[in-house]
Design a protein that fits this description.
heterodimer; A: alpha+beta; nine-stranded mixed beta sheet; 25 helices; 22 strands; about 55% helix; B: alpha/beta; four-stranded antiparallel beta sheet; globular
């Protein structure tokens, strides 16, 4: 029996190739995911180890954090030459209209204790000296010896200079000198965007202020210890270090560990695998599972056809005495062989691709310490091998059962084209309907919970997302399982429409319906991939549209140029005209709006009388037409005209106990006069009022130009235009600040787009496998329809039309799969958006037209391509074969 | 254009030859055959296995290419036509009735019958269609698929398909080979009726003497040569002629 199976496989090897490719792709996917996860762990460990540089030991504790006392105690241990504590804070740096948030760590006394090297200049040695990563220095346009502004937190002081009893902090810009620039040759701080260095004193001050009121002393994540040359890193030294720290901190020696940097990095990396790496692994494996599922459909189809083709031979075997079990085992053995061989090829392919990617990435000098070669663990080989083989065998189970049901009598009957039109069971119908209905109900529940939450009902957002996800998965499984019942009907309908175009199309349509189950399975494989792609694009498009409205009101202005200058008499210094012309001259800028400002006192109903005449409020003057041209959300200045004042909702509560309402009359008093105006509340951010320029004239005839709102031209690239604006404005030498909300805004879109393209890339594997399935189904059909093709040729169908018939079959199967996928995907995409985004905002349901059209075009083109080879094969059939008697 | 034949000749061949293989392995399936088939006649081609009768039919119908000689359908030389012209020739001027019936399983009987007309882009002559299906006794089965019909019914559908486009000639290759004797007799009667009542021309390849007896004329083939012919055949006469061919072979 075994020999017979192998002989059959050799004979039918061409027919198994497509199924084999499906398995190869999906197992390679699994292997790559596992290998990439290994590479990530290795990279993490290496970069962690790099941070400890050439330290002899790393001291860490599970007890209270290490302090300066511990550090001093370690320094006192004989043989210890240098100690440094690892601590990190982030500081805001400003220069030339640019802002960078930079991580800082303390300067070390021994170069063995840091992976950082000086590129230029010197290490900081005095307060308010810093060294910056070369890239940061370049971004801030500063060179060693230059100065920049650092926002330092300082306690709020009372009039006599002592800290205010409230304990509040305020930011204070201080000027710091950049003493040098830093290289990070080992890529130890790549994830942090590089590391800056400051003196221990500055670090401690920043650290304590950043920590709020809780921390009263400097603490360290761990201590790096360098031993004097000639001192052995022995167990005795370790014990002495543990004792020193235990005594200094008064804690149990058990909580203190002294490790070598390599040991420590491994420990930390092992703890981290609980997070990022596992998330990556799960993420990758989910997509691998989708690819495997689609491959299973292709495999099941292939075996079904193989068994159908062999009906006569199987019957003959039954006639000469083969048992049903033997036939089943024969089919399963074939599946096993195919599964093992194809999975092995898949693992090898995955390993080769990952190695290739590593080699290429290594050559590109990404600044990340990548391992030079992949680490092939047992799991990397066994998991894909076992998965691929098991999936293949499971997929072959139903065809194997079909093989046992061939009656010996079939050998004696005249052979006609085999048909595999088994009727799908009632169990399947009921089961799939239950899944579908139950899943949809759960999905609906998830959406309802999410929107209730937006309306104020307090249910955790996670419940909505979990319910919707589970509901979505269940209903989709139900939909796929039930596809055999409804997909052929859709194909039939599409076929009838296509059939109107002529007899060739009519033949093709009839062909797709002769084996409804096979057509359904082939189409379904495509439905899965296309649905997921469409769902992700729809979700992303809806998320972007929804976020756009949120961002429009949050970042209503693309670029804000604001004066920072103060005149000698303490007034705001107006923006000089040079800045204005510089802005207009910059490529990519659109309309601008000028805002003058002054301060007023306020009175009116709803305004706390004690506020009146006391705290000055800021007032901007804005021409409504200019404002509307610039603002992304023009509703923010709705109602702004002479005699009204725009009141941001955010400051209503600051005005007094009785809230100011729409239509209230307010009196604003400025240095030159006062106006009585009608209040109009909008969602404008900030704490300033807005009036029209003519009203401003009454309040303050000499109000300086305080702010310019700049919009970007349509299609302008914010990350290019905003720095360009910063450059030209800093060249004018004016004291102004440039804030590019457009850049931040774009970052949201970029994150969504990046995630979307990764996901679609991963799903592409499933779509490719499904399209291989279409080609497979068509070529198997051609093989089993050889006599029919010959008959058609004999009664007058030309070669071209025979090929055309197969092309239409391919287009029908792929087209229906793609259209169904797009429609279902749209539904799930919208449902998902509602479930996830409802809790944040009103969801806008968008249709990602480009992606949808692309998916349809790709599917149709592939359906056509899939028919090319089978079509050539069919067209080669000589009409004489129609006459051959079996 | 060689037109030395009777104007009533539907199909004729001149020195038609076919060899398979080359050198020592060369097999002469047909060794230069001259034969005429008269319009409106039912002709049977008979001969022992390997006599070249199927090859002759394939060449006459343009299904296979000749090694030498010419074959004509009416005035059209079949040998030497391009694949495209051959396809159109088969579609418009030839009908086939085959041993395996060769109906398309996904189409109904009616769709199978009208397929050649539809492929040609023509409209079905409903009167002719009704005449055919009534004559063949399949008008009640038109909405059935082949798998729902008996062998005899399927073959009658195949005959209707061969006749629907009113072709110049119908080639039948062992049309009763897969039928029991009763169904076979019915099919042969229909073929004869379509010649006598519907004025068609039929060339049938068979090895069954009783089938050949339904024909107006029997052409005997042996070793790729015409070995004689019988007009107004009876089963006994055909059998006797075949026997003499066999004796010839032995000799």
């Amino acid at each position: 029996m075994f020999r017979l199976t192998l002989t059959q496989m050799r004979r039918g090897s061409a027919r198994l190739i497509a199924a084999g490719i499906a398995i190869v792709i999906s197992t390679a996917f699994v292997a790559i995911t596992l290998l990439a996860s290994n590479v990530m762990s290795a990279t993490t460990t290496t970069s962690l180890a790099a941070r400890f540089a050439d330290a002899s030991f790393v001291a860490s504790t599970t007890g209270p954090q290490l302090t300066d006392a511990d550090k001093a105690a370690v320094q006192a241990v004989p043989g210890v030459e240098a100690v440094t504590g690892q601590a990190t804070t982030f500081q805001r740096l400003d220069n030339a209209g640019r802002t960078v948030f930079q991580a800082f760590s303390p300067v070390v006394t021994d170069q063995r204790l840091t992976p950082l090297r000086l590129a230029d200049g010197a290490w900081p040695s005095q307060p308010h000296q810093i060294a910056l990563p070369a890239s940061t220095a370049e971004r801030l346009r500063v060179e060693p010896g230059g100065t920049i502004t650092l926002e330092e937190m300082t306690p709020v002081l009372t009039a006599d200079g002592t800290p205010d009893p409230s304990g509040d902090w305020t930011t204070q810009p201080v000027t710091v000198t950049v003493t040098g620039t830093i290289d990070d040759p080992l890529g130890a701080y790549v994830q942090w965007g590089g590391m800056g260095v400051a003196t221990a004193g500055d670090m401690e001050r920043w650290f304590l202020s950043g920590g709020g009121g809780d921390s009263t002393a400097m603490t360290y994540e761990d201590l790096l210890i360098a031993l004097a040359p000639g001192t052995a890193a022995s167990a005795d030294t370790r014990a002495a270090l543990v004792d020193a720290i235990a005594q200094a901190s008064g804690t149990d020696a058990d909580t203190i560990t002294i490790t070598t940097p390599a040991e420590h990095a491994e420990q930390v990396a092992a703890n981290m695998t609980g997070g990022q790496n596992v998330a990556f692994l799960v993420f990758g494996l989910v997509f691998a599972a989708i690819a495997l599922l689609v491959a299973a459909l292709v495999i099941a189809n292939t075996f079904q056809v193989l068994v159908a083709q062999r009906t006569r031979m199987l019957a003959l075997l039954r006639c000469v005495g083969a048992g049903a079990g033997q036939l089943r085992r024969s089919v399963l053995l074939e599946a096993l062989t195919l599964g093992v061989v194809a999975s092995a090829v898949g693992v090898a392919l995955g390993a080769a691709l990952t190695q290739l990617a590593l080699t290429l990435a290594g050559g590109m000098n990404l600044g990340v310490p990548l391992p030079g070669h992949i680490e092939v663990t047992r799991a990397v080989v066994l998991v894909p091998l076992v998965l691929g083989t098991v999936v293949t065998m499971v997929a072959a189970l139903a065809p194997a059962r079909a093989a046992t049901q061939v009656a010996p009598l079939a050998a004696l009957r005249p052979m006609d084209a085999p048909t595999v039109s088994q009727r799908a069971g009632k169990v399947r119908l009921v089961f799939s309907l239950l899944l579908l209905v139950g899943g949809l109900a759960l999905l609906g529940f998830g959406i309802a919970v999410a929107s209730d939450q937006f309306a104020g009902v307090d249910t955790p957002a996670e419940v909505a997302v979990l319910a919707a996800t589970a509901g979505g998965v269940l209903s989709f499984i139900g939909l796929i399982l039930s596809s055999v019942f409804w997909l052929p009907a859709i194909v039939g309908l599409a076929g009838r429409l296509v059939g109107l175009s002529g007899p060739t199309a009519k033949l093709a349509a009839a062909n797709t319906l002769r084996n409804p189950r096979r057509t359904a399975a082939t189409s379904t494989a495509l439905v899965i991939g296309v649905t997921l792609v469409a769902m992700m694009s729809t979700g992303a498009a809806s998320a972007r549209a929804t976020l756009d409205t949120v961002l429009d009101s949050q970042y209503p202005i693309d670029v804000l140029v604001q004066t920072t200058g103060i005149t000698d008499d303490g007034r705001t210094q107006g923006i000089p005209a040079t800045v204005r012309s510089a802005i207009t001259a910059t490529d990519g800028t659109g309309p601008t709006a000028d805002l003058t400002s002054t301060h007023v006192t306020l009175s009116g109903p709803g305004v706390d009388p004690s506020l009146a005449g006391e705290t000055p409020f800021g007032v901007f003057a804005l021409d409504p037409a200019a404002g509307r041209a610039v603002l992304n959300d023009t509703s923010l200045i709705d109602g702004l005209h002479a005699g009204t004042v725009i009141v941001p909702r955010g400051i209503v509560s600051m005005l007094g106990h009785d809230d100011v309402e729409n239509g209230d009359t307010l009196t604003l008093t400025g240095q030159d006069g006062s106006i009585t105006v009608t209040a109009h509340l909008t969602d404008m951010e900030g704490k300033s009022f807005f009036v029209v320029p003519s009203d401003m004239q009454t309040l303050d005839a000499t109000a300086p130009l305080d702010t310019i709102w700049v919009s970007l031209a349509d299609g302008a690239d914010a990350p290019t235009v905003v720095p360009a604006l910063q450059d030209v404005i800093s060249d004018t030498g004016a004291s102004v600040m440039v804030e590019g909300a457009a850049v931040e805004r774009l970052q949201f879109s970029t994150v969504i787009d990046t995630l979307l393209s990764i996901v679609i890339g991963l799903l592409a594997a499933a779509v490719i496998i499904a399209l291989i399935g279409v080609a497979n189904t068509l070529s198997l059909s051609v093989l089993e329809r050889q006599r029919e093709s010959a008959t058609l040729r004999a009664i007058g169908l030309s070669r071209g039309r025979l090929r055309g018939m197969l092309a239409i079959e391919g287009l029908l199967i792929a087209g229906v799969g793609a259209v169904v996928g797009v429609v279902v995907g749209l539904g799930y995409g919208w449902a998902g958006s509602l479930a996830i985004l409802s809790s944040m905002s009103t969801v806008i349901l968008a249709v990602p037209w480009t992606h949808i059209i692309a998916a349809l075009v790709v599917a149709l083109a592939a359906g056509f391509l899939a028919s090319v080879l089978p079509g050539r094969m069919a067209a080669r059939t000589s009409p004489v074969e129609a006459l051959a008697a079996e | 254009m060689t037109n030395t034949t009777d104007s009533r000749t539907a199909v004729h061949a001149r020195s038609l030859a076919k060899t398979y293989g080359k050198g020592a392995a060369e097999v002469r399936a047909l060794a230069g055959v001259d034969v005429d088939f008269t319009q409106g006649q039912f002709t049977a081609i008979m001969g022992p296995s390997g006599s070249g009768k199927s090859t002759l039919m394939h060449l006459l119908a343009g299904l296979d290419s000749a090694s030498a000689g010419q074959a004509f359908i009416g005035d059209t030389e079949v040998t030497g036509l391009s694949d495209k012209n051959l396809t159109n020739l088969r579609r418009d001027r030839i009908g086939f009735v085959l041993q395996q019936f060769n109906l398309l399983p996904m189409l109904t009987a009616e769709q199978n019958i009208t397929l050649p007309v539809e492929l040609a882009g023509g409209t079905v002559d409903r009167d002719w269609f009704a005449t055919l299906t009534n004559t063949l006794g399949i008008s009640q089965r038109l909405n059935h698929r082949p798998s729902e019909m008996s062998g005899g019914q399927q073959q009658r559908v195949a005959i209707a398909r061969a006749l629907i486009a009113k072709p110049d000639v119908i080639f039948a290759d062992e049309p009763t080979g897969n039928l029991d004797s009763r169904a076979g007799a019915e099919v042969l009667s229909f073929l004869r009726r379509s010649v006598r009542e519907l004025g068609r021309t039929i060339i049938m390849v068979t090895h069954d003497p009783s089938a050949a007896a339904y024909a107006d004329r029997v052409v005997l083939l042996a070793d790729g040569h015409i070995a004689g012919e019988i007009t107004e055949p009876t089963p006994e006469a055909v059998l006797a002629a075949l026997d003499s061919l066999r004796t010839l072979e032995v000799a």
